[in-house]
Amino acid sequence: MSRKAKSPEPVVTDMSIIEKAVAEAREMMSNGSTKIVTAVLRPRP
Fold it and tell me: Which residue ranges make up each domain of the chain?
């Protein structure tokens, strides 16, 4: 039902989604976008 695949809900605990986020973060890090990486890895209140 979730159409927004890029913005997962806070209740999401699926490890595959987390792994995907980490993979994207590493990709961004290799591209030099450290600010986006920290924003993605930092837990939201």
Answer: 15-45
Rg (CA), the chain: 11
Tell me how crowded residue 37 is: count the other CB atoms within 10 A of its CB.
19
Residues 1 and 16: beta-carbon distance below 8 Å: no
Give residue 1's pLDDT band: very low, low, confident or very high (50, 70, 90): very low
- First-to-last C-alpha distance (Å) of the chain: 25
Backbone φ and ψ for 21, nearest 5 degrees, come out as -65, -40
Closest CA to 38 of 20, 14, 21: 21
Local structure of 45: helix, strand or coil = coil
- Judge whether 39 and 28 are in contact, CB under 8 Å: no
